[in-house]
Amino acid sequence: GREVLIGVIMSSILVNDVWGRTFFQWQLQQRGIDLTTGHAERLCMQLQMIDLMSTDMTILPATATTVEITAALQKGVPIYVRGEDGTTFSGAISFADLYRAENGQSTAGKLAQMVPYLKQNDNLARAIAICNTHDAVSFPVLSDTEESEIVGFVTVKRIMNAYQSVLDRVTREEHSFTE
Question: Which of 74, 82, 125, 169 is least enclosed by beta carbons within 10 angstroms?
């Protein structure tokens, strides 16, 4: 009996060293169960920005004048600028950017500031990482195509609420198993 147990332990160690996982983990993976990450992390990786984003924003062409920018800012929604090609994301504009306009004579393309962005298929885990490294209220969400078109935006509050929902779900599931 003891020899068999030692053989099983040694073979498990050898398989783990060679394959990077145990035979049992490999069997689980074949059934679609991945134990390399926690449940909350897996849920964060499944939730994409396209599920969280809002489209209530203003998109201006690079040629928009300061009068058009001022009118857009009064709406109280994020303002994003399309590049000269008419599709590619060029940046964002805030009141501070408008203030920089020389005697009110500038265009959206000249005033737009490049800001951190997310892609529509980026997951919640990536969004949280971006929030941790950039001080912003919201982030534009761009298409996953080569053109990187502006398709929406997501606020830090929405990202954090989604993360809290994931944690709440995991907690409920854990407690349902213990009751």
Answer: 74
Across the chain, what does the average pLDDT equal? 86
Q: pLDDT tens for residues 44-61?
A: 888 999 999 999 999 999
| CB environment 104-116: b (16+ within 10 A), e (fewer) | eebbbbebbeebe
Per residue in 13-72, pLDDT (tens digit) is: 776 677 676 666 667 677 766 555 677 788 888 899 999 999 999 999 999 999 999 999
Chain centroid to CA 59: 20
Q: How far apart are CA 119 and CA 35, in angstroms?
A: 27
- Residue 98's closest CA among 110, 87, 83? 110
Neighbour-count burial of 44, counting CB atoms closer than 10 A to its CB (0-12 exposed, 13-18 middle, 19+ buried): buried
List of residues 6+ apart from 176 with CB closer than 8 A: none
Tell me the sheet residues that pair with 60: 81
Per the DSSP assignment, residues forming a β-bridge with 123 are 48
Mean pLDDT of 147-152: 91
85, pLDDT greater than 70: yes
Please answer whether residues 150 and 139 qualify as being in contact, where contact means their C-beta atoms are separated by less than 8 angstroms.
no
Q: Is the backbone of residue 32 left (phi > 0), alpha (psi -120 to 50) or beta?
A: left
119: nearest Cα among 86, 159, 153: 153
Asked if 98 and 73 touch (Cβ cutoff 8 Å), the reply is yes
